[in-house]
Structures are given as C-alpha cells and as structure tokens.
Amino acid sequence: MGDNRLKYLFFLFAILLGKNALALVDYSETEEASSKMESSQKFTKKVDKKSVSKNAASFDFGTSFEAVDVADKNGAGKATLAKIQGKFQTGHNIFVDFNYWAASSSDSQISNDSSYQKGNPTFLLGFNWLELGAPEEAVNVDIFGGLMIPQKDSTFASTRTDKIVGVETSKRFMDVAVGIGYEYRMTDTPSDSFELAIGNIQKLSAAIGWQVSGDIRLSVEAARVDIAAYQDFSRRSSLREKVSYGQVSPSLQLGIAPFINLNMGARFQTQKIKTSQNIIDARLWSNEGSYGNSLFAGIGIGI
C-alpha cells in the first residue's frame, strides 16, 4: 500500500461501483415499511433511506474520494482520502456496517511519504430498535456498537483501538426526513509512542434530507465533536486539554441509472480545533471534518 497501485484500485472501484451514501427515497404511500436509518460514520445517509419491506435484506456498497484542506498550527496543507464503505441490512432488524480508507499527502508537514497509505477499518453491528407510524410519517430508532481496528506502519492510521456505541433517530414528514444521532468513542492508548494519545470522543449530529424529485435529493448535516484530554499526563505525547470542533456538510445526490447514484458534497468547519499541540499527530482521519474544509464525490450501487 506504499505505492500508487492502491490509488488506482480505489479509482477503479469508484468508477465501477461507488458509494450508495444517499440512496433514492420512495416517499409514495405504499404497504412497504418505513425506511430505517443506516448506521455508519456519515449520518446524512441515515435520514432518508429507500423504503424496504420489513423482512427484506439489502446491500449497499461504494467508494468515494475526499480532498481536504488541512489547517493546523504548523500551517496549511492538503490531503486526499479514498474510501470504501458498505452496509448489509438483514431481514431481521439487524445490520452490519463497514468502512475502510487510505490517505495520501505531498505536504511534508502531514506525511513524509506522498504515496497512499493504509487507514483504519471500522466495523459496526446495529439493531433497528424501534419503528412507529405509517411509512410517510414514521419514527425510527437504531442502536449500534463496534470497533475501529488499529493499524501500524502508516502516517495516517491510528494505532488505537476505539470502541464505538451510539443511537440514531429519524422522523419522516412526507418528502422530508430529519434525524439526530449520538456517538461515543472509547479510545485506547496508542501503541505508537509518537502518536498523540487522546481521551474519549463524543459526537452529536443532526441532519435533514429533502426528496426534490425522483432522481434528485438534497441533504444537510451538522455535527459537533468533543475530544477529551488524555488522563495520563505521564505519557510524553498526549492531549493536555479538551478540544472541540463543529462542521456542516451539504450534499447533492443524483440518480444516474437504476440502483446507481452520484453523490457530491462538501464539509465546512464551523468551529476549528484550537490547541497549541499538533493535533495531526492524533491521527483523527477516521473522524470526518477534523482537519479542515473538504470536497467529496462518489458513485454507488444498492441491491
């Protein structure tokens, strides 16, 4: 993964498959059950998932690219992330999410290796806990838990093991859906002594989605993230103070063929991380919006 072959592999996946980040919504009044929110790192795709039968299984898979303008106390830089994400929704109110990414940067302040390097795989197991109301006005509650797997020999991947728990809710209003979510990450001590150790992470999200037409959908997500200080100050490389950041992420989804969609969007920091420490050393690339504004695009397929 230390050369450009990984970059070409991600690019090929993006063209052929892509990410079903915001699957088209059928808001017509049918006997199908209400949509259930997807459980994954990106909350906007949970508020208006396509309606499926209560006992139907589905699988979404895709890739995307994200270009990040990194803002840090050492100055500005750029980084590119290539992502693979997927979800398997069983017919028994249980779902499994997974995502993986790789990153590269030609800026020496970020990485001394400009080739793509491996990131952290994340796996989540979730339950569609509650569903109330008719499809066009349904309320859904999902709960989930999982792990971020540590990786070594990468400038970008963290050597921590993060345990993740969370809850998400959504409410349909005909062509509009809104949702809120809460995620809590219990962080471990990094095995790499040069990685900045951090405390637990809390994320509060809110999103709204609007089905404009049969093949056009708009979504906006806002989130606030709080990162606690690392409690053991005897460790030389550790976060000494609590830090927070906020972001807002508008996105547009276009249906380009049956079961295939194109998703484009941006992330804008509404509150930047303020600290005298080099937060890049915390390797927060799995936490979207941590390091600056970005643009992303991807195509996807849903079955």
Give a quick summary of the entry.
The chain has 1 helix and 13 strands. It has one helix at residues 5-16, and strands at residues 58-72, 75-89, 94-104, 117-118, 122-132, 139-148, 162-173, 176-186, 201-213, 216-227, 243-257, 260-271, 294-302. The protein is globular, with a radius of gyration of 19 Å.
Give me the strand/helix succession: HEEEEEEEEEEEEE
Biggest sheet strand order reads 1-2-3-5-6-7-8-9-10-11-12-13
Radius of gyration (Å):
19 Å
Global shape = globular
Number of strands: 13
End-to-end separation in angstroms reads 30 Å
Helix count equals 1
Instruction: Calculate the mean pLDDT score and round it.
Output: 84
State the share of residues found in helices, binned by percent: under 10%
Unreliable runs, pLDDT <50, ≥5 residues?
Answer: 1-44, 48-54
β-strand percent reads over 45%
**What would you call the structural class?**
mainly beta
Largest sheet: 12 strands, antiparallel, barrel
